[in-house]
Amino acid sequence: MARFKFIILLFILFPTLVQSQYFGKNKVQYQDFEWKYIQTEHFDIYFTEGGEDIATFVAEISEASYKRLKASFRFDLIDRITIIAYNSHNDFGQTNVDLSPPEESVGGFTEFFKNRVVLPFDGSWEQFRHVIHHELTHAVMLQMLYGSGVQSIISGMSRLRLPLWMIEGLAEFESREWDTESDMYLRDAALNTYVPDIDRLYGFMAYKGGQSVLYYLAEKYGKEKIGELIGKIKVTKNVDQGFKQSIGIGTEELTDKWHLYLKREYWPDIADRKEPGEFARKMTDHVKEQNFVNSGPALSPKGDKMVFLSDRDNYFDIYLMSAIDGKIISKLVSGERSGNLEELKWLRAGISWSPDGNYIVFAAKAGDSDALHIFDVKEEDMSQTIKLDLDGIFSPVWSPKGDEIAFMGTQNGQGDIFSYHLKTKKLRQITDDVFSDLEPAWSPDGERLAFISDRGGYISQEDIPENFEIYYSDFYNYDVYTIRQDGSEIQRITRTRGNEQSPVFSPDGTRLAYTSDRSGIYNIYVNNLETGVEYPITNVLTGIFHLSWEGDSDKMAFAAFYK
Questions:
Q1: Which end of the chain, N or C, is more open, meaning fewer C-beta atoms within 10 Å of its C-beta?
Q2: Bridge pairing between strands 81-86 and 43-47
Q3: Residues 429, 430, 432, 437, CA torsion sign
Q4: Cα-Cα-Cα-Cα dihedral of 315, 320, 322, 326, to 10°?
Q5: Torsion of CA 6, 7, 8, 13, to 10 degrees
Q6: d(C-alpha 310, C-alpha 314), whole Å
């Protein structure tokens, strides 16, 4: 039966980083969950204590997603689908639906022998919506192709095995169609000539490449062609024959047409945009180091040193380098080797220096929950591990006054900004509402915090209607806001139809920088807080993330996706 174990995983980013090497790993059960459930027309949704709002969101999004999938596939569900929703990734890591420990990058999975979808909430409603729709695409499609029940599934799979690029590409296409992130991956692949043939779409290209193939077909023939294609594959029990009956050509000829489409779409960008190395100094080299991720750069208060997260040693570790010449000074933190540093939150990389430059703080999974870890840079030793009663902790930032650490925390279906006082050891909640508030950053005087949020025009609690429901709002869009450190006086900085990320104040506090995809690519924008004038300072080919602006007003560090 081992060869029939099909579990569909959603990797949020770079699944090739997460190898299936579970030797020596144990799935620890830290707690006994008390389960509750609600039912909709087509779904049974299970949740745990504090997850009522999460379950309600799942219920609404699931039915809305199924309505779209039903129209796309022209198929009605045979059986109800069970959805198991966890309050956090830490809780999700204890699931016994699958016995292998889900790595940090696993955003959810579908186990279809028993018709179950399992997923965690991570504080972002849009990311959660995407995972729900993605996994339900798997569940609906597999029921459509193989029927329901273990015997039918095993029998069906013996006659028809779909390639991974179609399974994952379809789930990405149905849940996103096309977006900035997907565009970034395919632009990079096209410009750097590593787009494989359709039948060789492996690793993360199975997700994004497969999505691009289906998006191309929808653009050329209309979206209804996707449902027709799946129907033809079901009838012929052969993927290539399904393509030939649907569009008249097989995957080999389709590869040539798809590659030509990508060249026409992206190659003109070379003339108008720049590689990151053309306007900034490359401090890490993933090609030379043969690794995948160098992210979360944080300049020291004087701007002469920088810490960053990297998998160059096959694990996620924190390194210290010179910001002058780029030389690695030392590896400070070895992650993923102990239960106290099990996950270093690389998907939301966040490291911050103390104002005296002696310590750094970062978030990591420590046993059954997340914790703030304070590391002594000079002594190269862990100084404190601060465990807090929260579902998740992300992106900590040290106050310029030195007494507080702000961060994004999740609790009971809310993602808010919190602050921990180092002397009084008290936890303070700065925002407290249903909106996703992410990526806090202190102003140089320690009086305000910048952050991104999907709250739109809801600036104060009084602005929120009495019967407001987040799933009916525009939670797809993130803007930049600032708030006083006591939780008062929220100000909206951007009002765009794009998405903003990674806000940081200039060292003198007069400007605010952030990335925005309003042009279709994440570039750096600067806002003069005194005049309100905003302008871009980069025009990159692919995308920029994780800004750091310390010490020298003329120098900024960032992570760029390229090659």
A1: N
A2: parallel
A3: negative
A4: 0
A5: -130
A6: 9
